[in-house]
Amino acid sequence: MPAQLIDGVALSKKLRGEIAARAASLTEKGHQPGLAVIIVGDDPASHVYVRNKVKACEDAGFYSLKEEYPADLSEAALLERIAALNNDPAIHGILVQMPLPKHINPHKVIEAISTKKDVDGYSVLSAGELMTGLDGFRPCTPYGCMKLIESTGVDLRGKHAVVIGRSNTVGKPMALLLLQANATVTICHSATPDIGVYTRQADVVVAATGRRNTLTADMVKPGAIVIDVGINRNDEGKLCGDVDFDGIKEVASHITPVPGGVGPMTITMLLMNTVEAAERVAQQA
Ligand SMILES: Nc1nc(=O)c2c([nH]1)NC[C@@H]1CN(c3ccc(C(=O)N[C@@H](CCC(=O)O)C(=O)O)cc3)C=[N+]21
Ligand SMILES: [Mg+2]
User: Fold this and answer.
1) Catalytic residue (one of 118, 120, 228, 244)
2) Which of 18, 103, 172, 226 has the fewest CB atoms lying closer than 10 Å?
3) pLDDT at res. 1
4) What phi-psi label fits residue 121: left (phi over 0), alpha (psi between -120 and 50 degrees) or beta?
């Protein structure tokens, strides 16, 4: 029996409706949520993502500020812009689109963003809050993956979850969120000799390697939930994920498509973190 599709567009639509209602109520009280997105350089894919983020903000009733800079912007100038946005009361969230040009140190840039406005959840403090179970902003992609898993109605307690990939933005925070939901968690990565040994025992697999066909049907336990974080292009230039969707959909119980799975949810959780940031400010006013 083929797997059920986990529809990230439909779930996003539902959540964005709830976010828009929270934004409207904040706006009424004079605290319209505001997100600043900074993009440096002219990477076409990055510009597409940023355009989608700005549009999502506007659709949710946020104030949206997009700042575009040429690739030769100095690190000092970027840090200065972040300092100004940290002090701007109309802005509740600051996102600096990655990757940055090579002459700019991304760690320095991320740490310059006020923790109260770190809606990407990329800073060392946000990472520490996640690790220790404190309130803070969760990185949007793994946070969105958790919502997609929750939407299946399957309780993670005691389940075996396997994360493939160990990046600071996806794999590592993903593993911590699954652990917080009481799953038994395994992290596989490029030095794992045989990933299938682990994934064949998994009730949930999250693939986040940035490589096509990281996960194939023979590596999946029948009835597993498969979440595909990858955004790759196949030989025909078509968007595809890290998993062999056509093969795995015959084995898994639930699977996310690419596009239309994790991608839209990443943007939705960015909106969620930003509305949350604005609510925290409003509560203190
Ligand atoms: N500071 C920072 N924060 C980020 O969150 C961040 C970043 N830098 N740099 C790049 C990655 C990538 N990312 C995506 C967001 C949405 C889609 C998305 O909406 N994807 C659509 C398809 C889009 C298309 O057609 O290309 C989908 O999967 O359905 C994809 C990728 C956020 N990132
Ligand atoms: Mg890896």
Assistant:
1) 120
2) 103
3) 66
4) left
In angstroms, rounded to a whole number, what is the distance separating the alpha carbons of residues 44 and 272?
A: 26
pLDDT of residue 239: 95
Percent of the chain with pLDDT over 90: 99
**What is the pLDDT at residue 285?**
86
Whether 277 is in a domain gets the answer no
Q: Which residue from 38, 126, 266, 273 has its CB within 8 A of the most atoms of ligand 1, so it is best to mutate?
A: 266
User: Domain check: are 110 and 159 in the same one?
Assistant: no
40 CB within 6 A, ligand 1: no
Q: Check if 32 is active-site.
A: no
**109 with 65, same domain?**
yes
258 lines ligand 1 (CB under 6 A): yes
Pairing state between β 254-255 and 225-228: parallel
Q: Is residue 122 part of a domain?
A: no
What string of DSSP letters covers 186-223? Answer: EEE-TT-S-HHHHHTT-SEEEE-SS-TTSB-GGGS-TT
Specify the amino acid at residue 176. L
The verdict on whether 97 is a catalytic residue reads yes
**Domain count along the chain:** 2
Single-letter amino acid code for the residue at 182: N
- The range of the structural domain enclosing residue 165 comes to 140-263
Q: What is the pTM of this model?
A: 0.98
The CATH code of the domain that includes 91 is: 3.40.50.10860
Stretches where the chain sits below pLDDT 70 are 1
ipTM: 0.95
